[in-house]
Amino acid sequence: THLKVAGFDIHTSYLDSAAQADLVAALRDVVRRAPFVTPVTPSGKPMSVQMTAAGAYGWITDRRGYRYATEQPRGMPWPPIPQQLLSMWEDLTGSERQPECCLINFYGEGARLGLHQDKDEACYDWPVMSVSLGDDGLFRMGGPARGGKTQSIWLQSGDVVVMGGAARLAYHGVDRIRFGSSTLLPKGGRINLTLRVVT
Ligand code: MD3
Ligand code: FE
Q1: What ipTM describes this predicted complex?
Q2: Which residues constitute the domain of residue 59?
């Protein structure tokens, strides 16, 4: 039940239930101003995960490709990153740079995220911080090459993961969620936030 990969730092139950509820409330404001969309991969396939973002940049995908964009697909800027996430970033990463993107992934029943590397950022030296909220998610992590050995771990609501060093370019994905395992989100599902330096 634990994952041994250099640069993968898990802070189990970093957020207590009050802090999780507080973060969900802040995210409601973000989502009101930047509604979730069902992204389409460059091949035209809709993803099962719904996405939106906060910060100077959001990560988007459509038939033109994957990229960071300063505007939402509908042409408005992204809302600011909630303050409590900026404080967590400072506390857990100690990074000299502030995060420029908070990608917000929503997993409804049956949603998954295939194994991939995060390579759309200008520099891989900065860490990525991930916050899990709501239902449990089965996270899978491999190495720097596709097809290598992988390890899996259930991420639960309130868990925070920081990926740096070798883990930063590791293949990773989410195989499935345990829909209905948490009561944090009234309609169920899993939210994952990833904070990154993009430029
Ligand atoms: C390991 N999100 O948004 S978070 C993504 O749960 C993404 O929604 C997953 O993969 C999710 O790109 C996993 C944990 C995570 C995030 C970024 C990483 C692990 C990572 C970057 C490099 C290595
Ligand atoms: Fe990723």
Answers
A1: 0.96
A2: 8-196
Q: Which of 11, 49, 107, 128 has the most ligand 1 atoms within 8 A of CB, as the residue to mutate?
A: 128
For ligand 1, atom 5, which residue shows the shortest CA distance? 194
Strand order in the sheet with 190-196: 8-11, 160-163, 128-134, 190-196, 101-107, 50-54
- pTM for this entry: 0.96
C-alpha dihedral, 23 to 182 to 153 to 92, nearest 10°: 20
Task: Tell me which of 101, 120, 130 to substitute to probe ligand 1's pocket, judged by most ligand atoms within 8 Å of the beta carbon.
Answer: 130
Q: At residue 132, what is the residue type?
A: S
Binding site members for Fe cation: 116, 118, 172
Looking at residue 85, which CATH number applies to its domain?
A: 2.60.120.590
What is the spatial distance between Cα 124 and Cα 163, in angstroms, rounded to a whole number? 10
- Which pLDDT tens digit goes with each residue over 51-90? 999 999 999 999 999 999 999 998 999 999 999 999 999 9
The tens digit of pLDDT for each residue in 166-182 reads: 889 999 999 999 999 99
Element (H, E) at 151: strand 151-155
